[in-house]
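Continuing from yesterday's entry. The apo prediction looked reasonable, so today I'm repeating it with pyridoxal-5'-phosphate included to see how the binding region is handled. Same sequence as before; SMILES copied from the compound registry.
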Amino acid sequence: MSIKENLEQIFTTIPNHVKLVAVSKFKPNEAILEAYETGQRSFGENKVQELKQKFEDLPKDIEWHFIGHLQTNKVKYIAPFVSLIHSVDSYKLLQTIDKEGYKNNRIINCLLQFHIATEETKFGLSLDEAQEFLANEEFQKMKHISIVGVMGMATFTDDEKQIVREFKSLKFIFEELNSKFFASKPDFKEISMGMSDDYKLAIEQGSTIVRIGSNIFGSRQYTQ
Ligand SMILES: *Cc1c(COP(=O)(O)O)cnc(C)c1O
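Holo prediction written out below.
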């Protein structure tokens, strides 16, 4: 099936209140343009250089999402244009994003990434770590970031019960933070969870943003 056909099929499975981020990492501009012509406007990348290059080459009404592990020294390359950083996994990174937001005279939207999988390789905060810095006065003073929700990745497994359990744990984290720290902030409303293999389960568990790559673009070849 073509990218267009894949996307049109996926559109029918995603309710209106859920946003689709098409994960275009490792895919060429032509593939992104085919999705663009089908009406898709939000794309996700996990490498800073690749994202920056694609931003420069492609239509300016694309909304770019950064979904990979982000090193503090690279924030400056995406700070001028990134629409949402899904993967804030340390307080230090949040401070750097705030600083770059200030330099660019904009507020950068972020999600806090939580470690919900059993695999150790996946990045992310624990609930305790996040609560500690959210309660900190220094955090309250940051004017150039807006935390609009949470993100997580389930374990790579066929065990649906486990995946559901992990998505429920992210939903729980969202509710905890929402009531303790964001009760007066209506912008805190996003739960980014669900990929090609598990996005339907994620939507059932309350996801508001799904990040889908291979179901749209075909499988990736990691040759880089
Ligand atoms: C690659 C990636 C995706 C998309 O994965 P698919 O299984 O191809 O849909 C989603 N989220 C993150 C963080 C990724 O790195």
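Comparison notes:
- The mean pLDDT is 96.
- The radius of gyration is 17 Å.
Will overlay with the apo model tomorrow.
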